[in-house]
Amino acid sequence: MKTETIAIHAGNHVDEATRAVIQPIIMSTTFERGEDGGFPAGYIYSRSANPNRHALEHLLAKLEGGVEAASFSSGNAAGMSVFQSLEPGTHIIAPDDMYHGLRNQLKNLFAGILTFDFIDVNDTDVLQQHIKPETGLIWIETPSNPLLKITDIKKVVAIAKAKGIKVLCDNTFATPICQRPLDLGVDIVMHSATKYFGGHSDLMGGALITGETNDWWTKIRQVQEMGGAIPSPMDCYYLVRSIKTLPYRVKGHVQNAQLLAEYLEQYPNVEQVMYPGLSSHPQHEIAKDQMLAFGGMLSFIIKGDENDTHNIINKLKLFIKATSLGGVESLIEHRATVEGPDTKTPRNLLRVSVGLEHIDDLIADMEQALTL
Ligand SMILES: *Cc1c(COP(=O)(O)O)cnc(C)c1O
């Protein structure tokens, strides 16, 4: 079946007990034993499994073309479960512009347990040089945050596979509507469900989706169940509900982002626009090859300094100055401020999560804010 159909049906079924068309929310933390002492419906205790989480995980697996999914209370909890599933001493190769929250997690919580190098994973020579006998995982994130750099997924997978190294792709920016990393050979896909999956800036969640069940996945399942960083039945319900419209929302985000990127690119006071859908993007050809659509995120660098970026943000009326992404409302932020003092992000860069407002209104707002 096609993605639009999966999004609507894979996470929902008519409730047998009540004939309710929408699956009810089961808040119960515990489930009654049968007379034989067993659990007739397969549920025991909600940290292990819950009907709403089960529905969400089934939906996520189908959406990414995987065999199983594990959902978490946030994207960072999903990432942390991956790091906790690795043998102590494992070496991880991660991108130099990895999502800062996960980079900080590795540096602050896993130093001394795991080893890691943050490099340009897209540079084949650099990548080869950093592979060690104990390298167990190459982490990629494409398009990257906030520079919208593209990693050639098939190229990294080929290098990793030759050495028996696993590859994980953070697919948060792209969503399965724009990119399907499992089809390109990646072992596990990671998501912050807080972003496009939730889509309305009102819940937090995370997910891992695997292409096969193996020892590594069993360990991840153990971390999920024993660690307990699971989403509530309520959040699972809201995610299933939101994902029904994900394909259409993402189409709208992509359409608006392309038009806003094209508008910004021709604006005199804009130095550079980073959007993989622009032919000026240095990796536009790779993006065209591996993506189904170019996503709803863009960054741009203005001809000016940090102060000018703050002036622009403050003049905007529709774009809300806030971090995060993937909601229906457009957001803009000065990324270097968010990422802290050790960031390499240019100080005159603004990152935009392009929302679903009418593009004419978005461009008009940008126009009045950019005009000095
Ligand atoms: C937001 C985000 C995360 C972290 O997810 P949370 O839900 O905030 O914990 C990870 N990766 C990317 C690319 C993100 O944008």
TrEMBL record:
One of its GO terms (biological process) is transsulfuration. Keywords: Aminotransferase, Pyridoxal phosphate, Transferase. One of its GO terms (cellular component) is cytoplasm. Coiled coil: none annotated. The modification N6-(pyridoxal phosphate)lysine is found at residue 195. PROSITE patterns: CYS_MET_METAB_PP. It comes from the Bacteria. The keyword Transferase applies. InterPro entries: Cys/Met-Metab_PyrdxlP-dep_enz, Cys_met_metab_PP, PyrdxlP-dep_Trfase, PyrdxlP-dep_Trfase_major, PyrdxlP-dep_Trfase_small. Its cofactor is pyridoxal 5'-phosphate. Pfam families: Cys_Met_Meta_PP (PF01053). The keyword Cytoplasm does not apply. One of its GO terms (molecular function) is transaminase activity. Transmembrane segments: none annotated. SUPFAM superfamilies: PLP-dependent transferases. Belongs to the trans-sulfuration enzymes family. This is Aminotransferase class V-fold PLP-dependent enzyme. It comes from Mucilaginibacter rubeus. The lineage of its organism: Bacteria, Pseudomonadati, Bacteroidota, Sphingobacteriia, Sphingobacteriales.
